[in-house]
Amino acid sequence: MIQTSAAPSISQSKPPAILSLIGDTPLVEVTQFDTGPCQLFLKLENQNPTGSIKDRIALSMIEAAERDGSLQPGGTVIEATAGNTGLGLALVAGAKGYRVLLVIPDKMSQEKISHVKALGAEVRLTRSDVTRGHPEYYQDMAMRLAEEIPGGFYANQFGNAANPLAHERTTGPEIWEQMRHDVDAVVVGVGSGGTLTGLGRFFNRVKPRRGIEMILADPAGSILYEYVKTGKMVESGSWAVEGIGEDFVPEIADMSLVTDAFAIDDEESFATARELLKREGIFGGSSTGTLVAGALRYCRQQTKLKRVVSLVPDTGNKYLSKMYNDFWMAEQGYIHRPPHGDLSDLISHRYEAGEVITVGADDTLLTAFKRMRDSDVSQLPVVDKNGRALGIIDESDLLVKVHRDPTHFNDAVKTAMTNKLETLPPKAKIKDLLDVFDRGRVAIVMEDDKFLGLITRTDLLSYLRLHMPKQ
Ligand SMILES: Cc1ncc(COP(=O)(O)O)c(C=O)c1O
After folding, report:
1. Share of the chain above pLDDT 70, in %
2. Is 286 a catalytic residue?
3. Do domains 21-49+162-319 and 337-466 have the same CATH topology?
4. What is the position in ligand 1's atom list of the atom closest to the CA of 195?
5. Would you call 431 a catalytic residue per the annotation?
6. pTM for the complete prediction?
7. How far does the centroid of ligand 1 lie from the alpha carbon of residue 54, in Å?
8. Any long-range contacts for 391-397 (C-beta under 8 Å, 24+ apart)?
């Protein structure tokens, strides 16, 4: 262990130095994709301290509020978000000694909630199923809390001028310098509109009269693409890409800056982000896929060399359990396995491909329990060395053994497993599956002696949802 003679000095007045690492992100060229006659560059906003472009606006909004007095020492910063802005504010405002209170809709992922809490923010969960005007709508609730709490400051990224200003003063000039003053087009997404408005204003100033095209890449389902193309407000659909796309035009989004737009669906966004990681080693979030897909379409439509810039707005770390998880992708229908036309199409984790978590008959019950907890399942197939399914063990089997005497966790799995297996051949019918579920079991799919995998109620529900006729 390294001994130091004095305790490290902790500055009470100066915030931690990490705040100086916000912005000044690198720019890298895309070299492994077909970019037509163009050169495409990406600004790596995923390298900000909390992993997103929103650190910039968090710093800008807090400093502006400090300057104009709306945020005073001892004050509370309030925002309606579960996403990147919440993380940015939790870091910046927390580091400066303010209390941070985030109002979060209850559909948001546990990982994001854990992350903001770990940064020291307080969280108020509210309903996701209500819209603007309802007292429990997250933005209305945040605004109300800011009025009620003495010293409360509502950051309000959708209406705060310090949001676009952050991009006009930092992101834009950085790109301009990194591109050596030679830029033809910028491809952006719109969440609050801060990036679009800030970059658009900056580039109009340095290269006036639309010298630089501003291209919108919008998730299919968002209203913004149609608004740019036709000026009409259409009804919004739904999309799974996070952070961009809207069902309204945000107050600070100056859509007149946009010169052209592309609508990109979720499947193309996810596939592009995954390809970007494989081919270029760039680890972006789902909106990175939308932006890069839009940028590639733009580039391939050009007839002469253009220097194009887009962004990697946040890190792929936030999407490991979704877009970067093959099982989630398959379950949601974003990647397609060749169909067999039988029950094996319902098996989400295939044994042959090494995707099934199993346990051996001579392993201990403790091993079985730990594997269930680690992989968040409530039963495990018991399989021998040759891949034959010998039985199944579930949480009830474990409880029966250990509830009186927990030392039985040391007993072998074979002493607790069920060996009367509910096996079905792949050619069995959905009705046969329902019968198995009615008996409180999961189905084990066997082709003769070969174990193919399990089918649970969730697998059947996911399959039926995917095959639901489109409205
Ligand atoms: C995850 C994410 N958040 C936010 C933004 C941009 O948002 P805003 O319009 O709020 O500047 C982007 C832009 O691409 C994004 O990908």
Report:
1. 96
2. no
3. no
4. 11
5. no
6. 0.87
7. 8
8. 391/361, 391/417, 391/418, 391/419, 391/421, 392/417, 392/418, 392/421, 392/441, 392/442, 392/444, 393/359, 393/365, 393/368, 393/417, 393/418, 394/418
